[in-house]
Amino acid sequence: MELRSQVLEGELLHPDTGFASARTRLEQRWDPLTGHASRLVSSPDELFPPNTYDLARLAEETRTGCPFCPDLVEMVTPQLAPHVWPQGRIRRGRALLFPNLRAYAKHPSVAVYDPELHYLPLARLDAALVGDNLAAQVDFARAALEADSASTWVSINANHMLPSGSSLFHPHTQGAAHPQPTTMQALLAAVPPERFDDYLATERRLGQRHLGGTGTIEWLASFAPLGPAELRAFLPGVASPVELGGDRLAELAHGIVVALALYAELGFESFNLALYGAPPGTAGYPLNLRMLVRSNLDMPYRSDATFLERLHWEAALDLTITPEPVAERAGDRFRR
Ligand SMILES: [Zn+2]
Predict the structure, then answer these.
(1) What is the pLDDT of residues 159-179, one digit of tens each?
(2) Ligand 1: centre distance to CA 59 (Å)
(3) Are 198 and 173 spatial neighbours (Cβ–Cβ below 8 Å)?
(4) SS3 state of residue 265
(5) pLDDT tens digits, residue range 185-241?
(6) CB crowding 21-34: b at 16 or more within 10 Å, else e
(7) 110 CA to middle of ligand 1, Å?
(8) How far is the CA of 226 from the centre of ligand 1 (A)?
(9) Which of 22, 215, 274, 287 is 20 to 30 A distant from 185 in Cα terms?
(10) Number of C-alpha atoms within 13 angstroms, CB side, residue 167?
């Protein structure tokens, strides 16, 4: 497989050199699975500076009245319908799952990692917290499918901290079971199975972005990311989160924790994650995950989503967080 990219150069008169002629350079890349393009841009200054915002203080400011904290969570969060889950809410370890009041899907869920943990910096997310949370989401999706066999498109997602789109400070994940795929689920499910194999084999051979495997799950820094520091994981042999057994869930949780520790090291505290399910039993489709970081809250705040990301569906990436340096920082931590 050829990983498609193109370098494009331009010219301007630069103010730092008395307006002498200077070259500009960008590299455009195309994702080998969906064809989405991405721009790696040489930037004169750091557009994604490490976090300096006092998140602990913001945590204290948002703690009073938080609907996911222990005082309120049982009173103000909804319960699942009895035919889906008779106990109303799903508990796994410290995780607590309930339906989302905002119906982003036919069956939308919210799973709080732990009602006691209103503030959860990325470095403190461990395999038990992530594993129990994922297990609660899998229980929910299985129950939703049992109750409504048409809602076969399952995803598990995260908005972590405010820049990611989360409306509440208290860390949580969101699940969805829906009768229709999201746009990205449809694009991924249309990829021929051998193309996933080719992509992984190519990255394994090139080595630059291949981060290794944790057993049965392979991790990559994306060739053409949708956003900064994007990582991808591929789980061959399962198409939907509902097919994930205990061992693979634990392995996936471990990989996510490793990725989040890397993000914390890089100075980020906000991320998005999506685990894209296809209908259970879809032949050859590997369940796969994407995660990326979001701008820090520092003032003046700059969103990482510009007209390019929102309206052209094409990410522009500042040089310091392009795929290869991220892979280099990841080192061997994903290899088992
Ligand atoms: Zn809270």
Answers:
(1) 998 888 888 999 999 999 999
(2) 8
(3) no
(4) helix
(5) 999 999 999 999 999 999 999 999 999 999 999 999 999 999 999 999 999 999 999
(6) eeeeebbbbbbbbb
(7) 13
(8) 30
(9) 215
(10) 6
